[in-house]
Amino acid sequence: MTEKNQQEKNAAERQVELLVKAFDKAQENGGVWLNKDGKKAPQFYLKGVTVSPFNAIILGLHSDQSNYKTNEYTLFTEAKKRGESVQSGQKGVPFYWYNWNEYQSKADPEVKISRDEYKALTPEQQSDYKGIRNREVRMLFNIEQTILPMVDKDAFDKEVKERGRLSDRGEIKATSSEISINDFILKTRDNLVAIRLDTTGVAHYDAQKDTAYVPKRENYEHYNDYVNALVEQVVAATGHAQRLNREGMNNRGGKAPSEDAQKRELLVREIATAAKMQEFGLPAKLSEEGMKNIEYWKREFKEDPCLIDAIEKDVNNTLDMIHKAERGEKVEKRQLNAQDVEAPKTIIPKHYYVADEIKTLPNKDSKEMVIVRDAGSKTADVVLPAGASLAVDNEIPGMNKKRIEHALQKEGFDTVKFYNTDGSLGFHPDDSYFDCKEISVSKLNKWELEDITKLDVTDAVKRSGAIDFDKVLMLKDDEGKWAMYLKPENEKAFSVYPDKADVNKFFTTIQQGNDEANERLRQDMATKYYVMASEKPELKVDLFKSQASAEELARIERVNIFKTKATENKPSVILCVPTIDGKRVQAREVSGQQWQRMWLADDKQDYKTHLAASLFADVLRKERTEAVAVGTDKTEQEAQADTQEQTKNVENHEEETKQEQKEEQAATNKKQEEEKRRNSPEQKEKEKQEEKAKEEATKAETKAVAAVALSPMLKQFLDLKSKHPDALLLFRTGDFYETYKEDAEKASKILGITLTKSTKTKDEQGKPLAMAGFPYHALDSYLPKLIRAGERVAICDQLEAPKQTAKRGISEMVTPSAAPEKEQKTEPDKQQSFHR
């Protein structure tokens, strides 16, 4: 950008001053920051010429803050010619005046002609030239700053009545503005962006659908608020990638806009919305989000002298597009080209863990800053809580930049750079930047720097070239083929089919029992297939969808999947019972792999529907061949026998559910009757007498409790718990991870699972054992929740080898999958691993 002259610098400072003062005032006026009195839009007095949107904002703010009755402005020379000179001592407001006095050849930029020469050309010849825009700063004065009210009071009063405050425009009815606003809605809806009624009660713009959603007018306390919300969404739509393509509005190369870009986009929206509200003659109000960012914007204006120019350009372009739509001109979307969309790259994503941590450390109150020293290059980065710019004097007391720079130069650092925690001068390098650098939190002690603490970022730097994965698992598809399931951090999960050699290597490493080697292999293999899938998206497979059509899926109304109880003759099985076309279908068996995938699916209900579509494909297609479960080798007779057995299991399951509901209701009724009886005066007196007897019996009961026979399982749990009292112990029993006693109470609250009391198992005090558990397949879902809640978690797995007695050990669960094509052996060694 061309360097500004002093006149332009002064104008920019004055504009920023007016904006900042208005934002501060908004906090007192319930968010209203422009045109509080409802004056007509600014224009030139007598000439009736409207001004550009950004100039109109500045003139409107000047008029509001000076409490003038109109937004009518004039040049000093023009007022003097009319005999209405500007009063002495008056301070004007800067106004950007653009003219096109020269035109430049499109073929040869060196060839320039004057405006008169350009006007003498034919239309065909004119198309070979483009205008050169020159900006001048001129000062304008409100008509109340002139002697007009004194020399021609009637003319002044006329202007006030026609274009003054809403209270002064007596004959102007509110319905006239509503008509113009209705016309605005119709024109922008037809020519710019679709406008739909929102049912959530929150106005918003959906960039993917390119639609502005606005709630009903009745949802707003004031009509002005409704119009403000409507205009704001239309303004947002102008920033679409195929319209104005503002950085804070659109994803670039698949990456979401930075936080700073989004805040700048919000500022454009607020100012452009205010400009349009002023055109309607209505007050403009900052949004709730805008109110939260006032301090950020104020600092950015102070730190970045060119920000006001960028805002002017965006605001003017925004309103120009809206005006075009209002004139009935269709705003066609332009085609995206290669410059608009970055080519996909398969480089490893960068991490910013260190910079994000540094962002939280500078403190204005304690005068603490972060210093990143690079002894090799003799440079130092200083991160301040605010005031990094050297262009303006905005020092924080106790954090003088000259003293900081002098202290670092004494240490031998030739180059010192200053940054803020965010904004245009924000400090946000990726983790690899901090290799071989020293990071410290420091304070300025007179002319010396005092390091309070140092940050060790070695691990973050080592991991800077890696991708973080939430999950890396091996799963089998319905055909028994192994697939690698990957869930990259902050991205959607997907699966790929790895090479057979990688599958064997994966499980061989697991069998060796070396956790460090296993984790390293998982990371390397996951990274390899992540990059491959990025280069060739067609490698990705979806293990959670079926081949069923939308019509077939729509016929599946309900899907029930559950485990049957094991008996002496038959083990427990997992059954799927769907309701298709309103009829419950006979149950079919679900494989272990299908059951495992259900716990990994992002949408479990959707997965169940697709699973039912796969298992009951013959029913959906009405092509009954054999009454055999899909994917089995059973004879028809065996299948029919199993079907009868499964039907019986379903009926038993439903009967047990009904019986449990009856028992719960009976227990509730009994509890209510007992409560009534306990509240009676006679019962209370009796309870007092019995309390004394109970106290006498407590010691004897305690001794008796000590003799209670504990189950082997509970003994083992208590033994492990005594070794790890500060950890929440997940105890594997069969297909579930169970928690007991105090751990069960914690887990039920954190995970939202049911807390129960065992009627059979007693704790060491002889009371019913408190229990809470979840299926072992769901460990990857529940474990992060416990860790995020601040719990230290120990996992006790049941390790079983074929034809051996079951043993237990505390270890990290690697994967619920079994090894491929061969028996997976498990060492009986006990290992201990904790998650924090």
TrEMBL record:
Residues 629-701, 804-836 are annotated as: Disordered. Residues 638-647 have a biased composition (Low complexity). Residues 11-117 form the N-terminal domain. Residues 648-701, 820-836 have a biased composition (Basic and acidic residues). Residues 195-308 form the Polyvalent protein metallopeptidase domain. InterPro entries: ArdC_N, DNA_mismatch_repair_MutS-lik_N, DNA_mismatch_repair_MutS_N, MPTase-PolyVal. GO terms for molecular function: ATP binding; mismatched DNA binding; single-stranded DNA binding. GO terms for biological process: mismatch repair. Residues 712-819 form the DNA mismatch repair protein MutS-like N-terminal domain. Pfam families: ArdcN, MPTase-PolyVal, MutS_I. It comes from the Bacteria. Signal peptide: none annotated. Gene3D superfamilies: DNA repair protein MutS, domain I (3.40.1170.10). This is DNA primase.
